[in-house]
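A favour, since you know our structure tokens better than I do. It will help me judge whether the discrete encoding reads sensibly. The space below this message is yours for that.
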Amino acid sequence: MSNTIVIIGNLGRDPEQRTPGAGPVTLNVADSTGYGDRKRTTWRRVSVWGKTGEYCLATLRKGDMVQIVGEESQDEWTGADGAKRVTSEVNASRVDGPFQRRSRDDAPERRPAPARHAGPQPYSDDEDIPF
């Protein structure tokens, strides 16, 4: 049985991969609920694999807004002080974004997105209008 979670939030730091070219890309995403003094922020660790992880490394930066779809898992453990702790991790199946860009003044230099083929263009000739 799996549980699907959708998270919309901002990246707390640039995506990172511990071993270049191998393993998951790790994202730290902050999602907030409420407003004013009732605002609550939850930090989530997200693992992204394969081509989706490569996309994240190439295009996402700290502060970008993203939407994550994936499966959440939780691990319970006991800390050194004897208190029980819960760690939550999301294994992403889809990452969409960035949706919101920082201002140009504080934005680091971005790598260009991969070029896409535009395909055939529709025919348009203003002189062929029959009326």
